[in-house]
Design a protein that fits this description.
- The complex is a heterodimer.
- Chain A is an alpha/beta fold.
- Chain A has a domain of 147 residues: Pectate Lyase C-like (3 Solenoid).
- Helices cover 14% and strands 27% of the residues of chain A.
- In chain A, strands 1-2-3-4-5-6-7-8-9-10-12-11 form a twelve-stranded mixed sheet, sandwiched between helices.
- In chain A, a hairpin with a 2-residue loop joins strand 1 and strand 2.
- The radius of gyration of chain A is 19 Å and the shape is globular.
- Chain A starts with 6 loop residues before the first strand and ends in a 12-residue tail after the last strand.
- In chain B, a hairpin with a 2-residue loop joins strand 13 and strand 14.
- In chain B, the strands form four sheets. Chain B has a seven-stranded antiparallel sheet with strand order 8-3-10-1-16-15-17, covered by helices on one side.
- By secondary structure, chain B is of the alpha+beta class.
- Chain B folds into two domains: 212 residues, 4-Layer Sandwich (Glutamine Phosphoribosylpyrophosphate, subunit 1, domain 1); 102 residues, ACT domain (Alpha-Beta Plaits, 2-Layer Sandwich), CATH 3.30.70.260.
- The chains are: A alpha/beta, B alpha+beta.
- Chains A and B meet through loops of A and helix 11 of B.
Chain lengths: 259, 366
């Protein structure tokens, strides 16, 4: 498909692209071309299933997505702010380095896989394997906040970073706040849940504690930012006690090896 | 040798639509949905199942056959004439397109089994039904007649499939001209088994159809188990076992769908241990009796018969599945965008729990 046939206009300082009938490759190429021209603000309309939006993009770019983007949005990105004004699909923020992705709906599976920096905010529910193998390095601490409920394997193999689960803005009244096998294989970072998680849902690497005063202040900062993104009441979120789930050891399988 | 080949193990795309009131709609709708998931496949298979498409022959089994060569056709037709009453037959209408390279001979036959005296006795003394006799005939053709494959055998339904992207297969079979109340579609990305006409999805037996995204690593076990009950797998594709497993568990053994799916996607023992006594006994019994029916491996499947459409994931949700509802329509697909492509403003969208079937039934069914 010819990139020149894409409808690109400029409105209020933002590049507006109508993604209807545009192949994902041409859409992403057009965005990168415009960034090459010095543009930093984008509005993508009529997005539906377009893959790999914002993948690998660096720098201070802002992208508003209207419609449901396809798989793997924001993978490897470092710096942009991407706002999705609908649901997102699977693979959001894979190996994300910096920036923010805000989804004002639900997200699919495997969100924030191997994330290493930045923030992902999901207003509603998220699927399976959220934050799997997140990692941190000194002050590079990635954060994922899920406003609704999450499925199995939440924080599986976490090596660092912060996962926050609120269970408040959920579609699923009857489901528990998190599925099974939460934090299985976890060896770094922390998971904060608004409410207590049933013991049988926890990976055996975890211990449950109450956040310290300074942790609560840190949580509050993160929650206020989350609430701002979706016009929610941060005080209401902080009104209930949080529980902290963290690994007992940074090397849970150490005794499987000879040394 | 192609060293550029990269195995994309989360490929394959699914889409399904059901109108619970039985209002029939054109195949162009499901085609738009599966086309939007074009990149989930690689052109090595596409297919559709449609229910309610032969209302004028409701009570006849519609056999769709593909033949590699005329000899296969002669042999199969001779077999059909011997074992069935063939009400009428015709080539399946196709519109040749350069997108579809080389196709087998494609025929359809509207039939009823010609019941032998021996079979009549079986039906009187054993739990053998007309459906069972049809299954036998299908197995016979698929196994014993080289180059002939029955790719659907249900009443008032049909499968349409081949090598090509599904949207091209849809054009090839002119599915826009068919109207059905349940449609499923598949975009294939084969990983373990060859891409060939018979290997495209859906896999069917009687009016069961299944489209599948994933890998059935328990294929060998499932296949050997099914052989004990007269089902032989001859289509070189792991998914084939699921169609027969459904027929065995649900039609022949009479298991309710939720029980059958808890055999196919069995709960973990640690979950069963936490259940109440009765549930624990039941789930344990199912796992013990139907251990060989367990489907190991990542999967998302959509299966249907004339009574409804069911979506199911493996217990650890290793493949995507999204469900939506709008009025009398229920949609199930690998990606939400594939649903929004055809039901744009749908409000009720959700992600099912792994291992728990999503069952969309017809409101009035026999």
């Amino acid at each position: 498909m010819n990139a020149r046939s894409i409808k690109i206009t400029k409105e209020n300082g933002a590049v507006s692209i109508d993604a209807e009938h545009i192949y994902y490759r041409d859409l992403n190429r057009a965005i990168r071309d415009e960034i090459g021209n010095g543009e930093t603000s984008f509005r993508l309309k009529n997005v539906n299933g377009h893959r790999y939006i914002a993948d690998g993009i660096c720098g201070d770019v802002s992208i508003d997505v209207f419609g449901v983007p396809g798989q793997d949005l924001g993978a490897f990105m470092s710096g942009p702010t991407v706002r999705i004004h609908n649901n997102a699909q699977d693979g959001v923020g894979n190996t994300m380095d910096a920036g923010k992705i805000a989804v004002s709906g639900m997200a699919g599976d495997v969100c924030g896989y191997a994330m290493r920096g930045g923030k992902i905010h999901i207003m509603r529910d998220a699927g399976y394997r959220i934050g799997i193998h997140m990692k941190e390095y000194y002050d590079r601490i990635p954060v994922i906040i899920v406003g609704g409920k999450a499925g199995d394997f939440f924080g599986e193999y976490m090596a660092g970073g912060r996962l926050i689960l609120l269970g408040m803005y959920s579609l699923y009244q009857e489901r528990s706040i998190v599925g099974n096998f939460m934090g299985t294989g976890m060896h770094g970072g922390a998971i904060y849940v608004r409410g207590k998680v049933d013991g049988h849902r926890l990976g055996k690497e975890l211990i449950e504690t109450k956040p310290s005063e300074s942790e609560l202040r840190y949580l509050e900062e993160l929650v206020f930012d989350f609430a701002r993104d979706f016009d929610l009441d941060a005080n209401e979120i902080m009104a209930e006690p949080f529980f902290k789930y963290a690994p007992k050891s940074h090397r849970p399988y150490g005794n499987l090896y000879a040394y | 040798m192609n060293h550029q080949y990269q195995k994309d193990i989360s490929g394959c795309g699914l889409s399904g639509i059901i109108n619970a009131k039985g209002e029939r709609f054109s195949g162009s709708v499901i085609t738009r949905s599966i086309r939007s998931q074009h990149d989930r496949g690689n052109g090595l298979g596409g297919g559709f199942a449609a229910y309610g498409i032969y209302p004028q022959h409701k009570n006849l089994y519609a056999f769709h056959l593909m033949y590699d060569h005329h000899t296969a056709q002669e042999k199969a037709e001779s077999c059909l004439r011997e074992t069935m009453f063939v009400h009428h037959q015709e080539p399946i209408p196709i519109m040749p397109t350069e997108k579809i390279q080389a196709h087998p001979i494609l025929m359809r036959y509207f039939v009823l089994p010609a019941i032998t005296d021996e079979e009549k006795k079986e039906m009187e003394t054993l739990p053998v039904t007309e459906d069972d006799l049809v299954v036998r005939r299908v197995m016979h053709i698929n196994n014993d007649i080289d180059g002939a494959y029955v790719f659907s055998s249900g009443k008032d339904m049909g499968a349409f499939k081949g090598v090509g992207f599904p949207e091209d297969i849809s054009d090839f079979f002119m599915l826009g001209d068919y109207h059905g109340y349940i449609w499923t579609a598949h975009n294939r990305f084969p990983t373990n088994t060859p891409g060939w006409w018979g290997g495209a999805h859906p896999f069917t037996i009687l009016d069961w159809s299944i489209v599948h995204n994933g890998e059935i690593s328990s294929y060998g076990i499932n296949k050997r188990y099914l052989e004990m009950f007269g089902y032989t797998c001859s289509l070189f594709t792991d998914t084939e076992v699921v169609a027969y497993m459904l027929d065995l568990l649900i039609r022949r053994h009479g298991l309710p769908i939720e029980i059958a799916t808890s055999a196919l996607a069995a709960p973990f023992w640690q979950v069963i241990e936490r259940c109440e006594n009765e549930d624990r006994e039941l789930l344990t019994a199912i796992r013990m009796v139907y251990g060989s029916a367990l489907l190991n491996g990542p999967f998302a499947i959509l299966f249907a018969n004339r009574r409804g459409l069911v979506g199911l994931n493996d217990r650890v949700k290793l493949r995507p599945l999204v469900v939506a509802k709008k009025g009398d329509f229920t949609y199930m697909a690998s990606e939400e965008s594939a649903i929004r492509e055809i039901a744009g403003d749908v409000k009720e969208v959700w992600s099912p729990i792994a291992g728990e079937p999503v069952i969309a039934s017809m409101e009035d069914h026999d």
